[in-house]
What we know:
Elements: E1 11-14, H1 22-25, E2 31-35, H2 40-43, H3 46-53, E3 58-62, H4 71-84, E4 88-93, H5 95-108, H6 116-120, E5 133-137, E6 149-154, E7 159-164, E8 172-175, H7 185-203, H8 211-231, H9 238-251, H10 265-277, H11 281-286, H12 289-295, H13 301-312, H14 318-335, H15 349-363, H16 375-383
Parallel strand pairs: 1-8, 2-3, 2-4, 4-5, 5-8
Antiparallel strand pairs: 6-7
Helix pairs in contact: 4-5, 7-8, 7-9, 8-9, 13-14, 15-16
Amino acid sequence: MNNFVYYNPTRIVFGKDTIKKLSQLVPEGAKVLMCYGGGSIKRNGVYDQVMDALAGWQVVEFGGIEPNPDYDTLTKAIDLGREKGIEFILAVGGGSVIDGAKLVAAGIRYHHGEAWDIVTGDKKVHLGEAVPLGTVLTLPATGTEMNGNSVISRRATEEKHPWASEAVYPVFSILDPTTTYSLPEHQVRNGIVDAYVHVMEQYATYPVNSPLQDRQAEAILLTLHEIGEKALETPPDYETRANLMWAATNALNKLIAKGVPEDWATHSIGHELTAFYGLAHGESLAVVLPHLLWHQREKKAEKLVQFGQRVFGLTGERDEVIRQAIAEMSAFFNRLKMPTKLTDFQIDPHEAAERIQARFEERGTLLGEHDDITPQEVAEILRMSQ
C-alpha cells in the first residue's frame, strides 16, 4: 500500500427532517449567501424548510446556477458576496450547485486576479482563505458534499476544468433522502452512473496490496447494483434513496482512494465531451468508461479480473472474465436507461476524437494511472464508442 494522508473535516447530518438542524449548524449571526439552481427547491419544499430553519439569519439569495456551473454566472455570485459582506455560504442543490458555491467561497476572498486562475490551477487557495460553506444535498451523485473537489465550466470558451482545495471542504452537509423524491428519472440515473464511475476510477488500476480499500470499493459497486434499478422507481422508496445517497457520498469522500493508484482518465475525457457537446456529466462518463477499460485491459488486467470475480461472480479464463465484466457493467448502465455509445447521443465519434485529441495535444495532456494514455489513444477510445 502507498503512503497517504487522509483529511476530511466535513460533518455529515443524515436522514429525514434534518434540514431544520441548519439552525444549529450555521454560525449564529452570520450573513449567509444561499446558492441554488433553477428553482426546483422552491417547488419541492426544500426552500421553505431552509428559510424556516434560518429565520434568525440575514440570508442573501443567489439562484440560477446551471448544471455544469458556468464561470460567468459564478462571477456574479462572487461580486454579490463581496458587496454584501457574506460570512457563510449555504449551497442547496446537487453537485453543480455545490461545485459552483465552492468557487464562490474561494473567489470572494481572492483578490489577485480573476477567479478563473483558481480553476486552472495558476493560483492555489489554501486552508482558511475561503468563506466557510455548508450544503443541503438534493441530488446524490458527485460526492462533492464531502470533499474539496469542484468542476467548473466556461461555456464562452468551451472549457470544463476540475480543481480542488482543502479550503472548500464543506463544514457540514445535510443529507435528507426525501429531498430526492422530486428528481426526474434521468437525474437519478446520471447520479448512479456518476457514483459508479467514481469508484471505478479509484479501483480499476493495478494492485498495491490494499484489500480493505478494494473491498470498500466493491461494497459500493455491489450496493449500486442492488439498489440501482429500484432507485428509478416511482413513488420513491426511502430506504433505497437513503442507501443511494450514502453510497454516492462514499464513492468520492476520498477514503477508498487512500494508499492506492487512481486513474481519472474517463473523467478528463468526459469533461471535454460536456464542454464541446453539452452531455450531462453522468452521460459523458458512461460513453467513455466501457471503451477505455477495454482499450486499457492489459494494463488493468489484474483489477478487472478481480472486478469480474467479486462484483459479478464470474469465473473462467482471464480474457473472457474481463470481456464479460465490462459487458455486465455496460448492461447495468443500459438497465438504468443510460446509453453507452456516443452515437446514442447523435455525436460522431470520429469528430469527437479529432477535437479532443487536438485539445489534449495542445495542452500536452497524458492520462491514466501511469500517465501514459496519449491524446492519440484518447482518440482511439472515443472512436470505439459507436
